[in-house]
Amino acid sequence: MPCRCDDYGDSHGEAKELLDKVTRAACDMRTILRRHGLEYQLTLETCNWIAKHDAEDEARIAKEEAVGERMAARVGALAKLTMDDRRVLGL
């Protein structure tokens, strides 16, 4: 899933969409700067944002992977059931 801005809770609407777009753009720029070794020539405030964003990305990715693994286990378990088993379980 793409980067997004979660700093403002469950805000919705155009403002949230704009914040998400700006966050994705900043993340893309961070990636480019990092590739060229220029990331730490930025202001302290920007470096702090990058560190915070990296930590949030890491947590988000771990959560997505955990959900994916859980889904894979569910699909595997369901594949072992017969049609009669599925009907009994209401699946």
Please explain how this structure is put together:
The protein is mainly alpha-helical. It has one domain (14-89). The radius of gyration is 20 Å and the shape is elongated. The two termini are 28 Å apart. The protein has helices at 14-35, 44-79, 83-89. The longest helix has 36 residues, at 44-79. It is 71% helix and 0% strand.
Helices and strands, with pairings:
Layout: H1 14-35, H2 44-79, H3 83-89
Summarize this entry quickly.
Helices cover 71% and strands 0% of the residues. It is mainly alpha-helical and 91 residues long.
Helix coverage percent of residues?
A: over 70%
Poorly predicted parts: none
Order of helices and strands: HHH
Strand content: under 5%
Overall number of strands: 0
* Tally of separate domains: 1
What are the salient characteristics of this protein?
mainly alpha, 3 helices, elongated, 71% helix
